[in-house]
Specification:
It comes from Alkalicoccobacillus plakortidis. This protein has 13 helices and ten strands. It has 327 residues and is an alpha/beta fold. The protein has an eight-stranded parallel beta sheet, with helices on one face. The longest helix is centred in the N-terminal third of the chain and has 15 residues.
Length: 327
């Protein structure tokens, strides 16, 4: 495992880390014992950073992380998020009193005294423009409740706006082979500003594993069933904003990247790691097997300049027009 500095912070984190939305909920059936074994497997293989949120299973993923990292709080870094347990459009959700409550509740579930990275969880751009929530986070940082703070964003515009705040230390963005727009402006600007980049939805909600066909059926409580068209939250969080059937079709044109890289998912994750501005990529998981499969990405061959250009051309000519929603 290689480690990369999270922007200008003092955190050096595993280049391949993990997100814990799936083990919390909204990805179909889970098993806590398997989830804990999977977390243990990740840690044993050098992973020292996990991303979560207070709404993942109503705090359940935070509780699982507390169990998995007990006694290793100083060496295993956790990033969590807030605001989606309330009305994301209400100023009250971002008030000092409410944010403090969110923060303290996460600390209790994680059984920690300080959060390594506290992130605003995809707030509306109006909240970011207003900026008062950043002052609240500054206070929590002074009090020692949070080490650093950042923002999980839905769009490049939101990300660029966050970079105007000198205390934002990390951005979490949707970024994968089917969602390359951040490469153009956001990633270079973040590097210039010394802001770390956490790449989420790296496998386009599983599309880039190559295992799906158009006939695949998802469980009712899986967001890939109930949020296909953005019915519950931003459509970009599900298949990167691409219609499922179109995504299945596009993935067939990417199968060539598996050559010499074991399988499609390890190749897709390797492509993200090959972008110099990326600090870490956070695929999700529900099983030990999925963790082991994702970890293979750190050892497969990097992409050549010719391959990178071919993939960029593919995105511009075949993919970009099919992405729905603001991005």
């Amino acid at each position: 495992m290689q480690y990369r500095q999270l922007g200008n912070t003092d955190l050096k984190i595993s280049e391949l880390s993990f997100g814990t939305w799936a083990i919390g909920g909204s990805w179909g059936q889970t098993n806590d014992q398997e989830s804990l074994k999977a977390l243990e497997t990740a840690v044993d293989n050098g992973v020292n950073f996990f991303d979560t949120a207070d709404v993942y299973g109503n705090g359940h993923s935070e509780e699982l992380l507390a169990k998995a990292t007990r006694g290793r709080e100083d060496e295993i870094h956790i990033a969590t998020k807030f605001c989606r347990a309330g009305d994301i459009h209400s100023q009250e959700t971002y008030s000092a009193e409410q944010v403090r409550t969110y923060c303290e509740n996460s600390l209790k579930r994680l059984k920690r005294e300080r959060l390594d990275l506290y992130q605003i969880h995809c707030p509306p751009i109006e909240i970011l423009k207003d900026g008062k929530v950043f002052q609240v986070l500054d206070e929590l940082q002074k009090e020692g409740k949070i080490r650093h703070y950042g923002v999980s964003v839905e769009t490049v515009e939101e990300g660029l706006l966050c970079l105007e705040n000198p205390n934002v230390r990390a951005l979490q963005v949707i970024f994968n082979l089917l969602r390359q727009k951040p490469l153009e402006q956001l990633l270079p600007k973040a590097k210039e500003k010394g802001v770390g980049i956490i790449a989420r939805v790296p496998l386009a909600s599983g599309l880039l594993t190559g295992k799906f066909t158009n006939e695949y059926t998802f469980e009712p409580d899986d967001h890939r069933h109930f949020n296909r068209d953005g019915e519950s939250f931003n459509v970009g969080e599900t298949f990167g904003g691409i219609k499922f059937e179109k995504g299945v079709e596009l993935v067939q044109q990417l199968l060539w990247i598996r050559q010499g890289r074991k399988h499609l998912s390890s190749a897709a994750l390797r492509w993200i790691l090959d972008q110099q501005e990326i600090t870490t990529v956070i695929p999700g998981f529900k099983t030990v097997k999925q963790v082991e499969s994702n970890l293979e990405a750190v050892n497969v061959p990097t992409f050549s300049a010719e391959e990178l250009e071919k993939l960029h051309t593919f995105y511009k000519t075949e993919v970009e027009e099919h992405i729905r929603g603001a991005y």
